[in-house]
Amino acid sequence: MTDKYSSRGSKFSGQDFPSRRQRRKHEKEQLQARAQANAQRTAAPLNPAKYARDVKPLKSSSKVSSSNGSKNRQGMSPSKLEPAGKPKKIAVSTKPANSQHSKNLKKSSNPAKAQNQDTSKPRKKASKNNRPPKRSRVLTWTKRIIGILTGLVLVAIIAGCITFLIAYYRLEIPEAQKFAHAQVTTVYWGNTDKMMGKFAERNRTIVDTKTFKNSYIQDAVVASEDRTFYENSGIDIKGIVRAFWNNVRGRPTQGASTLTQQYVENYYTGKNVGYTGKFKETILALKINRQVSKEKILNDYLNTIYFGRGAYGIEAAANAYFGKDAKDLDLSESAMLAGIIPAPNSWDPLVNPDKAKQRWQRVLNLMAADNMIKEEEKASATFPKVIEKKPQATYFKGTTGYLLQHVRQELVKQIGYTEDEIDRAGIKIYTTIDPKKQKMLEDAIGALPDKRPEGLRVAASSVDTATGAILAEYGGSDYQKVQRNAVTQDVAQAGSTFKPFALLAALEKGHKLSEQLDGSGPMKVNDAWVGNYGGASYGKVDLIRATKLSINTAYVRLNSEIGMEATRQVAISAGYSKDTVGLDKNSIVGVLGTSSPHNYEIAEAYTTFATGGVRRPAHIIAKITDSAGNILYEAETQGTRQFEEENISELTKALAAVTESGGTGATAGKLGRPVAAKTGSSNDNRSAQFVGYVPQMVTAVSMYQVGKDGSEQSITPFGGVREVTGGTWPAKIWLAYMKDAVKDLPEQPLFSVENGKQRVKPRPKKTPYQTAEVPSPPPPQTIETPLKVPSSSVSENPPAPSEEPSTSPSP
Q1: pLDDT at residue number 379
Q2: Cβ burial 313-329 (10 Å sphere, 16+ → b, else e)
Q3: Residue 527 near residue 719, CB atoms below 8 Å
Q4: Range list for CATH 1.10.3810.10 in the chain
Q5: Helices (H) and strands (E) in the chain, counts
Q6: 458 close to 688: Cβ distance less than 8 angstroms
Q7: 414-471: per-residue pLDDT in tens?
Q8: Which of 53, 509, 519, 614 is 20 to 30 A off residue 433, Cα-Cα?
Q9: What is the C-alpha to C-alpha distance for residues 119 and 111, in angstroms, rounded to an integer?
Q10: pLDDT at 19
Q11: Mean pLDDT over all residues of the chain?
């Protein structure tokens, strides 16, 4: 039965076993031995001979079976046979002689691991499932990602090159002359074609700079603006990449314009904004650089670039700054002009001498570094002296100069243009000024007596209530003599024209016009005395009478009850700027007009009263168009409701009483139609104000006196008037103007809730520019100290009587 369990026919040597179990065990041991031998060969050390003794050959199976395989069990040696009934296990040794190595094999089912443990420097344990190390996998993925990104970059570069080539061959160089002629900014009277003036009319004389002898201007401009001008292709690749990378990282925006690109921008394309505009500029610069010589590019650039002071081109600049021809400019003068090119208006030596000198020194250093001049020339150079800025053309003569100044101020502060853009924009500005009414206002002020104080200043503005448009404005008699607009730049104490703000605040808090106030005086508030005109002392008066007679003591007591903060907020909501001089003072006597607004702000505030509580900011610019007539800007005229109609209706009753017989503004009552007004005079008569309105128009007149040193002075009486107050010359000017100005306006009743709602509803406008904030936010809160105001206060030394004295308390 032994043949039944023989291993003949298998891959192992022929051998008989007493049982199938013994045969399978033998085969398993043979497989393990062979696996071990293979592992040893695979992970063999550098010196295999050293380890040869560790492995013994397997026992030959011939000792168990016959060499020819024909012996049966009976022919085997009895010593090697199992006893009957209990077969003996056949043990075929597959273990190497090295016992330590055998122990290692028992500890690990992985022969490779056992082999590694037998070496002097054991190998690192293999990862599970024979996976490659983690570091190897990360490296593989990193290589794949880098490959993908590299491919994407190459695709983007190829696409960019194709786009660039297409744009390069399709883009045509524009007509330079058309753009050059479109740079004059023109201002018009109202919505007409009648020109009021121009800003930065192109003052340019073409010169050939190549013919200049001993000239430094070309080298100075190249050193300052583009040191690689003669070598580059019209663009600076390194500069573009550097600027782009800087912008991508969120740092301040940088440009990378070469001199050729600046020439393209100033002469062909205009100001380029964004990457698309810069891309177009770059292509044009490359084309022009290939088609035009460097000498011609530099010559055209010098004849095109803006140098400030309304001067375009080097010839006009030399005349504007030094009163000479460009060919006669020396080294220092050339370096100064080249240095201020990036911001000529801001870096003008008369505006910012420190910055101009810094830029001048920079140009000299660059010229010396590039061997354009010698170090001795640089060391001996001194900063040049420039001449005074000349008035622009003749447009700024007389009263028109003040109107143009106001236009320019509004362009910058309300609409958002820069000074440089105004001078180079090539836009058309249509003002709100009515030429006829402007002439009427100038004639009314011109009728003042010739013998008047030398430092007397008059400001006046007339506003259309339906839109907030300034119809007429008087900022002075001659802008070339006094370059300061009395309407928009100067300020004067408001006097009692401020009192209606306190009255409106009281109405908003529920007070009635019929309420009685104590008008007796004089009265003392802390260390300050407050008295009434002529030293009068009134008893109980209602709010209408207190307004009609402008009783100071009554209004101080009213303001003490409602609080100065409420009065201040009404003034800001009506039209005062939150930054008005003196408005932040927290004293109840501030109701008497210690703050100093601009004249047009008084007119704007009373326009809010005339409209029934709708504020429309006063403005002098109606619209702006480009040279083709496309509208760029339109003034906002819809307005914002600030006060309830019922309260404005009550306020109007009190202001109408001022113009009645016996009122401080009775002069306005002679207009012959419904009118409301208020007078105002400051302490020591340093200002005199009058503001009045009909439903369609508001006009404010301010008068003040300035000393030779610019200090505020009391107005010197003139023209037979013993004391200049708001009810004297300012009221007379107002009446003289309004009589003519309202002739073409239908007579209408003043606003009231009884005669209907707001009559005029202007169409809404939209503007792409940021307009002034309406309403202005309230000022920061101040600490209000409670004051004890007696019903009457008499002193042995009261103040000298005046019409409407306004005295601030001591700190």
Answers
A1: 94
A2: bbbbbbbbbbeeebbeb
A3: no
A4: 202-380
A5: 24, 17
A6: no
A7: 999 988 888 877 789 999 999 999 999 999 999 999 999 989 999 999 999 999 999 9
A8: 614
A9: 13
A10: 79
A11: 78
Q: Enumerate residues 6+ apart whose C-beta is below 8 A from 109.
A: none
Secondary structure letter of residue 469 according to DSSP: B
Task: Please report how the helices 134-170 and 274-291 are oriented relative to each other, as an axis angle in degrees rounded to 10.
Answer: 60
pTM: 0.60
In the DSSP assignment, the letter for residue 93 is -
β strands within 682-753, DSSP E: 687-694, 697-706, 712-713
Instruction: Identify whether the C-beta of residue 694 lies closer than 8 Å to the C-beta of residue 580.
Output: no
* Pairwise CA distance, residues 36 & 51, whole Å: 14
| CB contact at 8 A, 636 and 771 | yes
d(CA 317, CA 751): 56
3 state SS of 511: coil
Write down the pLDDT at residue 310.
Answer: 82
Q: Supply the DSSP string of 325-375, one letter for each residue.
A: -GGG--HHHHHHHHHTTTSTTTS-TTT-HHHHHHHHHHHHHHHHHTTSS-H
d(CA 694, CA 751): 9
Using N-to-C axis directions, what is the helix angle for 645-658 and 599-610, rounded to 10°? 120
Pairing of strands 185-188, 428-431: parallel
> What are the backbone angles phi and psi of residue 272, rounded to the nearest 5°?
-95, 130
CA 388 vs CA 168, 315, 326, 420: distances in Å: 46, 17, 18, 19
Nearest to 45 by CA among 113, 99, 118: 118
CA 642 from chain centre, in angstroms, equals 28
| Range list of H helices, 87-216 | 99-107, 111-118, 134-170, 176-180
Cα distance between residue 230 and residue 217, in whole Å: 15
Whether the CB-CB separation of 702 and 509 falls below 8 Å is answered with no
Report yes or no: 6 and 14 within 8 Å, Cβ to Cβ: yes
Compute the distance between CA of residue 794 and CA of residue 537 in angstroms, rounded to an integer.
Answer: 10
Q: Residue 32: what pLDDT?
A: 83
- The tokens 């932040």 sit on which residue? 584
Q: How far is CA 630 from the centre of its chain?
A: 25
- CB atoms inside a 10 Å sphere around CB 276: 9
Write the DSSP symbol of residue 67.
T
**Would you call the peptide bond into 522 cis, given omega within 30 degrees of 0 as the criterion?**
yes
Q: What pLDDT was estimated at residue 573?
A: 96
Tokens for 160, please give them: 């960019």
Residue 351, judged by CB atoms within 10 A of its CB (0-12, 13-18, 19+), counts as: middle
What's the DSSP call for residue 519?
Answer: -
Helices 111-118, 20-42: axis angle to 10 degrees equals: 50
The pLDDT of 145-166, averaged and rounded, is 75
DSSP code string of 225-269: H-TTTTTSSSS-HHHHHHHHHHHHTTPSP-----HHHHHHIIIII
3-state secondary structure of 701: strand
Q: How many CB atoms lie within 10 A of CB 92?
A: 17
Residue 431 sits at φ, ψ, to 5 deg, of -85, 175
pLDDT, tens digit, 9 for 90 and up, residues 731-757: 999 999 999 999 999 999 999 887 755
Residue type, 652: T
Are 415 and 430 contacting, i.e. CB atoms less than 8 angstroms apart? no
Amino acid (1-letter code) at residue 253: T
Tokens 């003036």 correspond to 197
**Amino acid residing at 368:** A
**3 state SS of 524:** strand
Tell me, rounded to whole angstroms, the distance of Cα 695 from its chain centroid.
39
Rounded CA-CA distance 327/209 in Å is 8
Largest CA distance in the chain: 166
Strand, coil or helix: what is 198?
strand
Backbone angles phi, psi at 555, to 5 degrees: -70, -30
Choice between 690 and 57, residue whose per-residue pLDDT is larger? 690
CATH topology of domain 202-380: Penicillin binding protein transpeptidase fold (1.10.3810)
Strands 697-706, 456-464: pairing is antiparallel
